[in-house]
Design goal:
Blueprint (H helix, E strand, L loop, with lengths): L1 E7 L6 H11 L2 H5 L12 H9 L1 E6 L5 E2 L2 E2 L8 E8 L3 H17 L7 H4 L3 E8 L5 E2 L2 E2 L2 H9 L3 H5 L3 E3 L6 E3 L5 E5 L2 E5 L2 H16 L1
Parallel strand pairs: 1-2, 5-6
Antiparallel strand pairs: 1-5, 3-4, 7-8, 9-10, 11-12
């Protein structure tokens, strides 16, 4: 569901740093760690386990890298490119989160941690994969199929009224003390993360202005 490619310029990160960055890029906890408004909330553990099982990260070190119209050498500042492939319908909603977490993880490995925020030495591309182009378990898996895979661990809770569907992404969310929720006009909405909540509220506000 999320395939990540990390391209590293010569001398940018040593082998230990590459392994550390790859592990962090492929960790569900890191993906949500940027959102202070989530109140420490993490994706429901059983859904998170399913989500994590779909992560794959590959690291490349190209022998030739040109940036700013010149060939980079080991003496140049580190350059990194991250390509994150996600289901097409999720690309818009996930882009800001993905760009933030990938940049943060790489910046923490640089001697100058402010560099990626001052110069375009780290670029992140979020690429939406067309529906039907993701294959898992020997068959095409569309966005709705992935939503149901993430929701499957909480079907019993939903039947018992202890889980609600996130109105933005459609994933079942168990109602826990730390669940991100919003009460609007007496109706309770639950969200898998703070990002879904914020986007939902923004869409409601926009609809209200219309």
């Amino acid at each position: 569901m999320m395939f990540i490619e990390l391209f590293v310029s010569e001398g940018a990160l040593d082998s230990a740093q590459q392994r550390r960055v790859a592990r962090r890029l492929g960790t569900i906890h890191e993906l949500g760690a940027h959102d202070p408004e989530a109140g420490g909330h993490a994706m429901a553990p059983r859904s998170a386990a399913v989500f994590a099982s779909m992560f794959q990260v590959v690291v490349h070190r190209p022998p030739v890298w040109v940036a700013g119209e010149r060939l980079l050498t080991e003496e140049d500042p580190p350059h990194c490119l991250v390509r994150v492939f996600v289901p097409g319908p999720w690309r818009k909603d996930m882009s800001e989160t993905v760009i933030s977490y990938a940049t943060r993880i790489l910046a923490e490995e640089f001697e100058d941690r402010d560099l990626p925020y001052q110069r375009p030495t780290v670029q992140v591309q979020v690429i939406g994969i067309s529906e039907g182009s993701v294959g898992m378990l020997g068959k095409a898996a569309r966005s709705q199929d992935l939503v149901e895979m993430l929701s499957a661990p909480y079907q019993e809770e939903a039947a018992a009224g202890r889980a609600l569907r996130d109105p933005l992404c459609g994933v079942l969310v168990p109602l826990r003390d730390d669940t991100v929720t919003v009460d609007l006009d007496g109706e309770l909405f639950a969200f898998c993360c703070g990002g879904c909540r914020n986007e939902f509220l923004a869409e409601r506000a926009e609809a209200g202005r219309g």
